[in-house]
Amino acid sequence: MEMHIALVPGDGIGPDIVKEAVKTIDKVAKVYGHTVSYREVDAGGVSIDKYKVPLTEDALQTAAESDAVLLGAVGGPKWDHVPGNLRPEKALLGLRSGLGLFCNLRPAVIYPELSDASPLKPSVISEGVDLLVVRELTGGIYFGEKGRSNDGKSAYDVMRYSVPEIERIARKAFEAARIRKKRVTVVDKANVLETSRLWRETVSEIAREYDDISLDFMYVDNASMQLVRDPKHFDVLLTENMFGDILSDEASMITGSIGMLASASLRDDKFGMYEPIHGSAPDIAGKNIANPIATILSAAMMFRYSFSLEDEAKAIENAVASALSDGIRTRDIAAEGEKAIGTTECGDEIIRRIG
Ligand code: IPM
Ligand code: MG
Q1: Residue nearest atom 9 of ligand 1, based on CA coordinates
Q2: Does residue 116 have a pLDDT over 90?
Q3: Half-sphere exposure of 326 (CA within 13 A, CB side)
């Protein structure tokens, strides 16, 4: 297969980790006989430095013309002083909305070898954790009207959802559940928020098309507590944009490190953007310390969702699992006294186990 991938390394550790994911994609392509071409795109702080805006029309265009986008991370203290609408994060939001990527899949799986890295007690995670956060990505409070009053003494961010926006993400969640444990939990705040009540009504309607899937609802405060009390209770968590942002960071830590969680941002065709859920970690940028696994696993998701190449996706996931079980650890997942290796070496160890 011929694949055209747009690379958005971004800021901080972004370039370090994207480099390892590219090495992995190249290795898979070689082993399975695919051709890959890359086009690099500036977005985030690097783009602000070069072009004074976080995302240029050209950058968005290049991303849109590709088959899939692989993104590292954006942002950093260097750009903290820029006005809100020009912040590096705007690049990410611009890509997500500009490319129509409304469905964000964030799987959290605990590797048995890493159970020591989880802050939860062994008894809580002994039966494993394997959940999927399905986060609505192009609506809600992130994209609603926002502003300040004239005197600057009050500010607002509007959370708005339409029925079609809820319907399309609900379908994605039910379909994902169908090939998992067939359980969807909608996380909301329906005891307070009108948008949440609309979510409950709409998802309940859609659920009638999926009578093989069980559906329940949970308030977000309770869900964030249940996630650490009994994570195995969950299969698919379906939620709006901001709750999904928060819950996926929490879910990642259950697995041992935020450096492990991959994500896919999808729409209704094969196109997708793939990125680790973590940020740009500017304090460790360029030091060969960052954990590249979340980005490498995001590349696996790219093979799965954008190219429908399941064997290739599995080959990457198996290589990661085998590296972990052989004791390969970056600093964030190394136990006390355990040897930690660098970003590049971790990437090498993973690609060595492919093919
Ligand atoms: C994420 C990040 C982004 C988000 C930020 C950087 C805008 O936290 O992908 O989870 O909130 O979506
Ligand atoms: Mg986040």
Answers
A1: 277
A2: no
A3: 13
Distance CA 35, CA 39 (A): 14
CB of 261 shorter than 6 A to ligand 1: no
Q: How many helices (H) and strands (E) does the chain have?
A: 12, 12
Instruction: Pick the atom of ligand 1 nearest to 93's CA.
Output: 7
Tell me if residue 221 is catalytic.
yes
Instruction: Give the architecture (CATH level 2) of 1-118+268-355.
Output: 3-Layer(aba) Sandwich (3.40)
**Are 271 and 306 spatial neighbours (Cβ–Cβ below 8 Å)?**
yes
Residue 245 CA: nearest ligand 1 atom is 10
Ligand 1 lined by 354 (C-beta under 6 Å): no
What confidence score (pLDDT) does residue 85 get?
86
CATH of domain 120-254: 3.40.718.10
In terms of pTM, does the model score above 0.70?
yes
Catalytic-role residue among 221, 268, 311, 326: 221
**Average pLDDT, whole number, for the chain?**
97
Q: Is the CB of 348 under 6 A from ligand 1?
A: no
Give 174's contacts (C-beta < 8 A, 6+ positions apart). 184, 206, 207, 209, 210, 213
Which of 27, 90, 111, 142 is flagged as catalytic?
142
Please tell me the predicted confidence (pLDDT) of residue 84.
85
Domain parsing of the chain, residue ranges: 1-118+268-355, 120-254
- Consecutive H or E run containing 262: strand 262-266
